[in-house]
Design a protein that fits this description.
It contains two helices and 17 strands. By secondary structure, it is mainly β. The longest helix is centred in the C-terminal third of the chain and has 12 residues, at 226-237.
């Protein structure tokens, strides 16, 4: 499968920043351990056309504890329009901006378009403190922070918000919402609580609005909670092929 020139579509907002830049603002309110672990685990991923020398899509991801290798959890939206027969189009390449600012090629290991979850592998790299996504005692009523990273600049960003209940529903009944305001650069990034515990993976923002249970119009970001992600990862382990 090859990518045609007329399917190339770089969204100009891939590098738009949000919230506070690493080192200031909300970052200073996180514990030193949480801030350090985030900076060592969060990466930016880019889907690049080798023929047309264009960026196709980009998102954030984070190294997780899974299957004994350096694995990045991210959104399948990175590759959703450019996969067929369980492989990325032949003229495309995943690039990963690592926490040490080194750029390396990444291999799509698994993906699930229904849940919008993907795993990308990077050879010969070991994250010192990968994110623990196992169920932990977390308080949804406390403040949450959404993390993102820009590929070009390597800039780490954080936006603060809270879990929010909404009127109506999404196509996926398992999605939850927070009031953390992110840009497209933050899609695929982790959502953590004030102690740095993993809550879920961020998807949509910033143009999603709706009414909360009190009738107030809010801007929100959807996220897939950690327990659902664990179910998807367990399903990945049952597959004999690389992707599903």
């Amino acid at each position: 499968m090859y990518l045609r020139a007329d399917r190339l579509a770089l969204v100009n907002t891939l590098e738009d920043t949000f919230g506070d830049i690493y080192g200031g603002g909300v970052w200073s309110e996180l514990s030193e351990t949480a801030s350090s672990n985030i900076s060592q685990n969060v990466v930016s991923l880019l889907l690049h056309s080798m023929i047309w020398e264009k960026r196709i899509s980009a998102c954030t991801g984070s190294f997780i504890e899974w299957n004994g290798c350096a694995t990045i959890l991210t959104s399948a939206s990175l590759v959703s329009h450019f996969v067929g027969d369980k492989k990325i189009a032949e003229n495309l390449r995943i690039e990963v901006l690592l926490p040490n600012k080194e750029r390396r090629g990444g291999a799509l290991q698994h993906y699930n378009l229904h849940y919008n979850v993907a795993l990308v592998n990077v050879k010969d790299f070991s994250a010192p403190h990968p994110v623990n996504i196992q169920p932990q005692r977390s308080n949804y009523s406390s403040e949450l922070v959404a993390i993102g990273c820009c590929f070009k600049s390597g800039m780490l960003m954080v936006a603060r918000g809270q879990h929010t209940e909404i009127l109506g529903s999404f196509d996926c009944k398992l999605l939850k919402c927070s009031t953390c305001k992110i840009t497209k650069a933050g899609i695929g990034g982790p959502l953590v609580d004030s102690d740095g515990k993993f809550i879920g993976m961020n998807f949509c923002g910033p143009d999603l609005y709706g009414m909360d249970l009190y009738g107030v119009i809010k801007n929100w970001t959807t996220f897939l909670p950690s327990d659902v992600i664990l179910d998807v990862l367990a399903y990945f382990k049952t597959k004999l092929t690389d992707c599903c």
